[in-house]
Amino acid sequence: MTDGTRLVRFLRELGVRPGGVLLVHASLSGTGLAPAVVRDALLEALGPEGTLVTPAFTPENSDTSDRHRALTAGLTEQEREVYRAAMPAFDPAVSPCPAVGALADCVRVTPGAFRSAHPQTSFAALGPRARDLLAGHDPYCHLGERSPLARLYAVNAQILLFRVGFEVCSALHLAEYRMTPPPPTRTYRCVAVGGDWISYEDAVLDDSDFAVIGVLLPRVALARGEFAGKAVTLLEMRDTVDAAQRQMSGYRRRTA
After folding, report:
1. Residue ranges in the chain whose pLDDT is less than 70
2. Range 108-112 contact pairs with CB under 8 angstroms and sequence separation of 24 or more
3. For residues 139 and 189, is the Cβ–Cβ distance under 8 A?
4. Residue 226's CB: how many other CB atoms inside 10 A?
5. With contact defined as beta carbons under 8 Å apart, do 144 and 203 qualify?
């Protein structure tokens, strides 16, 4: 049995829905599998009517991101200005997404892939529903109601955390936008398509408690397995977002 065949069997036994929509966060380190093998296994498990979605985030493209601050740490103010002026404009066709792993970068460069247009928090997808799910990503909304996450929620996508934990589960950010009361906002800046910088107000994104939220999710919402020595978790997106929204609306409000 090939590695790809073994992975397809694992995904089907875990409960990946043929013909469904699957949002995947993955770490391939230690699996010995090439990103293309994992991509093809996911697509085979989903079948010809299924759609594979990955984050294709580019925090390097924003001078208000933690990633940018890390990249420019130790530079003088003048050096920071030079660095900022040389930052390439976001281009959905070519901008790499190293922050979210090899699988995501593989998906975005696959012929036929569609990528959403947000200059910092785009998604990439393969499959018959890719364009419908990702088109129209508002450049002033990272991961809220005008982002692909809201559409994935509407179609009840599944979420696959492949050898990663809840701390990287982007769908939990949609729960942040839906908190009661809503989260505070802050200013973001990105260099967008064409080289123009855009500045906008959007929700403060805080993933510091995502790992804890994952532990507290109702067990009926989860299917678990193990692949290459690390945990794999499959979730229903609606159940996950709704449960996380209730949690955040409780304890985050009390600790604000």
Report:
1. 220, 252-256
2. 108/54, 108/56, 110/39
3. no
4. 10
5. yes
**Order of all β-strands in the sheet with 222-227:** 114-115, 123-126, 51-55, 21-26, 158-162, 230-236, 222-227
What pLDDT does residue 220 have?
Answer: 63
β-sheet bridge partners, residue 53: 23, 125
Contact of 23 with 237, CB cutoff 8 Å? yes
Tally of residues, the chain = 256
Peptide bond into 181 cis (omega under 30): yes
Q: How, if at all, do strands 197-203 and 185-191 pair?
A: antiparallel
What's the pLDDT at 218?
79
Q: For residues 170 and 235, is the Cβ–Cβ distance under 8 A?
A: no
- Residue 21 has φ and ψ, to the nearest 5°, of -115, 130
Strand spans (E) along 15-81: 21-26, 51-55
Structure tokens at 209: 């408690």
The single residue listed with the structure tokens 């069997």 is 9
Residues 155-199: pLDDT tens digits?
999 999 999 999 999 999 999 999 999 999 999 999 998 889 999
Unique residue bearing structure tokens 């010995």: 32
